[in-house]
Design goal:
The complex is a heterodimer of chains A (about 290) and B (about 280). Chain A has about 290 residues and is mainly α. Chain A contains ten helices and two strands. The N and C termini of chain B lie far apart (about 65 Å). The chains are: A mainly alpha (about 290), B alpha/beta (about 280).
C-alpha cells in the first residue's frame, strides 16, 4: 500500500510540476506565433519611433522607453526606502512591535492596483501638477512614484525576511567584538543577507514591469519619447498601458493586433531574462553560515 | 466538514439557478452611446422581466470588434465602420441602425472660457492639434500654454472630430500632449487642467467643461446646442448607431424596437442627444 501511495504521490507531484512548466511554454509559443505576423511584416520597423496603425507604422520604442523609465524611477524610490525600513523593523524595532508593523506594511501590498490608480489620478497627479507647475500631472514621474509606492511592500517584506534569516549568533559575535549597532548591521548582517536582498529587488522589479492599471491611468498615454530622455515630467506610455488601452480595439488577426502581442512578447522576454539573471546570481550566493 | 459540504452545495445550486434563470443580451462599445443604452436597458429590464440586458463600455472600436468576434449581441458605435474592420470579419453581416444624433464639440477648461475665449474657427483648432499654436495668447486668450488632449485612435468621437477639423479621420496630431480614452476620462483631464482643449460628445458638456462656439468660414458663429445639432448647422455632427450581426431577431429586436419607439427616443433626448424620430 505504502509503495503504491508513494508512487501515486510522486506522479501527482510530477504532473503538477509539468503542468506549470507547460503553461510557461504554452504562453511563450502562443506569443511567438501571434506576433509572427508583426515580425515578418513590420520587421525592423518595429524598433522605430512612430506609432500610427492607420498608416501601418508600428514603432514600439516609445513604449519600451516608457517601461524602462517608469520601472527605474520606481526602483530608485522603493529600494532604498524599502531596505532602510526593513533594517528598522528587523534590527531596531523590538520584536513585539515588529509583527504588527510588518502586517500593516503588508496591507499595502494587498490594495488592488485600480485603487492606487484612482488615488493617483484624483489626487496625486494634481499634486505633481501643482508642485512642478506643469500643464498636466499625468507624467512618467507620476507613474514612477506611484509604482514605487506599490512595490515598496514587496521590498520591505522580503528584505525583512532576509535579515531575519541571518542567525543571531552573527549579531552576538559582532556585538561581542565591541562593534556599534550600525557597524553590526553594515559590516556583518547586510553582507550576509545581500543575495536575498537582491532577490527581493528583482521580484519587485518584475512586479513594476508588469503593473498595468495604475500606470495606465496616470501616465498620459502618449506614444512619444520626451525631447530629453531624462525629462520625466512629460507624459509617456509603457508597454502595459499601451496593451491595456489598445488591445481590445485592434481586430484579431490584424498586424496591429500582432504588434500588440509582440510587445507582450518583449515584456515576457524581459521578465524571463530577469528571472534567469536572478537565479544565476542567487546560486552563487556564499552564505557563510551554511 | 459537513457544513462545508452543505455550503458548497448551496453555492453550486445558487450558481446554476442564476445561470438558468434568465436569457441575457450583452451590449458593449462606444461610451458616447452608452448613456442612452444603459438608461434604456434600465427601463426595459423593469418592464420585461424575462430577460436581462448587460451593458459594457470600451469605445466604438471595441463594440465593432467584439460583435465581429461574436462576444456580444449588440455593438454601440458613434462612427462609421472602417473598411478594414468589415474585411476582418467576413462571416459577420454588420447591420447598422441609427438611434440618435450627436455633435462632437471642441471643449476648453472653464478658466479659458471664462477669460473670454469662447469662439474658435476649425482652422485654429486644427493648428492647435498640429502643434502650430502652443499658447492661448496667440488666439486672444490668457498667457498660458495649451494642454492639447487627444483621444485613442479608434474612438468614434475622434474619427468624427478629426475628419471635420483635420480632414482625415485618422489624422496624426503632433501637437497632442495627452491621449485619453473614454468621454469620462477626457472630461476629467480637462476639468483637472486650467488650460486644456479637447473633444467631447455634446452630452458631456458641463459647468467645468465648456463647449466652444465654432466660427465658420463665412463668419457665422454657431454655438453647440440641440437646435443647431438637429437642423445640421453645427459642423461636427454624427449619427449614433447600434450594430447587430444580420437582421435582429427575438429579444434583440424587441430592445431595438423599444429604442426607436417614442419612449426610447425620449431617453435619447434626456441623455443630451437629438432624437431621430
Amino acid at each position: 500500500m505504502s509503495v503504491l501511495s508513494n508512487k501515486i504521490g510522486k506522479s501527482y507531484v510530477m504532473t503538477s510540476a509539468l503542468i506549470s512548466a507547460a503553461v510557461v511554454l504554452l504562453i511563450s509559443i502562443t506569443l511567438l506565433i501571434n506576433s509572427w505576423d508583426a515580425i515578418t511584416n513590420v520587421g525592423w520597423g518595429l524598433f522605430s519611433f512612430n506609432w500610427n496603425p492607420s498608416t501601418q507604422e508600428f514603432g514600439i520604442l516609445p513604449m519600451i522607453y516608457g517601461t524602462i523609465a517608469v520601472t527605474l524611477i520606481a526602483l530608485v524610490i522603493a529600494v532604498p526606502l524599502g531596505i532602510f525600513t526593513a533594517i528598522f523593523t528587523s534590527e531596531i524595532l523590538p520584536t513585539k512591535y515588529r509583527l504588527s508593523i510588518k502586517s500593516i506594511l503588508e496591507l499595502l501590498a494587498g490594495i488592488p492596483s485600480i485603487i492606487y490608480g484612482l488615488i493617483g489620478i484624483a489626487f496625486f497627479s494634481i499634486w505633481v501638477q501643482d508642485i512642478f507647475d506643469l500643464q498636466s500631472g499625468r507624467t512618467i514621474l507620476t507613474a514612477g512614484i506611484l509604482l514605487g509606492i506599490m512595490i515598496l511592500p514587496t521590498v520591505i517584506t522580503l528584505t525583512d525576511d532576509a535579515l531575519q534569516n541571518v542567525p543571531s549568533s552573527y549579531r552576538e559575535a559582532s556585538k561581542g567584538l565591541g562593534l556599534y549597532k550600525y557597524e553590526v548591521i553594515k559590516n556583518s548582517i547586510l553582507p550576509i543577507a545581500k543575495s536575498d536582498i537582491i532577490g527581493a529587488i528583482l521580484l519587485a522589479f518584475g512586479r513594476a514591469l508588469g503593473e498595468t492599471m495604475a500606470v495606465m491611468l496616470v501616465i498620459g498615454s502618449i506614444d512619444k519619447i520626451p525631447d530629453s530622455i531624462f525629462n520625466w515630467l512629460n507624459p509617456g506610455q509603457t508597454i502595459t498601458s499601451k496593451l491595456g488601452r489598445e488591445i481590445a480595439e485592434s481586430s484579431y488577426g490584424s498586424t496591429h493586433f500582432s504588434t500588440m502581442i509582440f510587445m507582450g512578447l518583449i515584456l515576457f522576454v524581459f521578465v524571463l531574462l530577469l528571472t534567469f539573471f536572478a537565479q544565476k546570481k542567487l546560486s552563487h550566493s556564499n552564505r557563510l553560515y551554511e | 466538514m459537513k457544513y462545508k459540504i452543505y455550503f458548497f452545495a448551496a453555492f453550486i445550486l445558487l450558481f446554476i439557478q442564476a445561470c438558468d434563470q434568465q436569457e441575457s443580451i450583452t451590449i458593449s462599445g462606444s461610451t458616447t452611446v452608452l448613456p442612452i443604452i444603459s438608461r434604456a436597458a434600465e427601463v426595459f429590464n423593469e418592464s420585461e422581466s424575462n430577460f436581462n440586458i448587460i451593458v459594457n463600455a470600451g469605445g466604438s472600436g471595441v463594440g465593432i470588434n467584439q460583435l465581429g468576434e461574436g462576444k456580444i449581441d449588440i455593438g454601440m458605435t458613434s462612427r462609421d465602420l472602417k473598411k478594414e474592420e468589415i474585411k476582418s470579419y467576413p462571416e459577420v453581416e454588420f447591420n447598422t441602425i441609427s438611434i440618435g444624433k450627436d455633435a462632437v464639440v471642441p471643449v476648453v477648461s472653464s478658466e479659458i472660457y471664462n477669460a473670454g475665449l469662447t469662439t474658435l474657427s476649425l482652422n485654429q483648432i486644427a493648428k492647435i492639434y498640429n502643434g502650430e499654436i502652443g499658447n492661448w495668447k496667440e488666439l486672444g486668450g490668457p498667457d498660458k500654454e495649451i494642454l492639447c488632449i487627444d483621444k485613442e485612435q479608434s474612438r468614434g468621437t475622434r474619427h468624427v472630430f478629426m475628419k471635420i477639423v483635420m480632414g482625415d479621420k485618422e489624422a496624426e496630431t503632433p501637437g497632442a500632449d495627452l491621449v485619453m480614452g473614454s468621454n469620462n476620462e477626457e472630461q476629467t483631464a480637462i476639468v483637472q487642467s486650467d488650460a486644456a482643449i479637447g473633444m467631447l460628445s455634446n452630452a458631456w458638456l458641463s459647468e467645468d467643461v465648456k463647449g466652444l462656439n465654432i466660427k465658420l468660414d463665412n463668419g457665422t458663429v454657431i454655438s453647440p446646442n440641440l437646435q443647431a445639432i438637429s437642423n445640421g448647422k453645427f459642423p461636427i455632427t454624427r449619427d449614433l448607431f447600434i450594430l447587430t450581426n444580420g437582421t435582429p431577431k427575438g429579444n434583440v429586436k424587441a430592445f431595438i424596437d423599444f429604442l426607436l419607439s417614442p419612449e426610447g427616443q425620449e431617453i435619447v433626448e434626456k441623455s443630451g442627444y437629438v432624437r431621430i424620430k
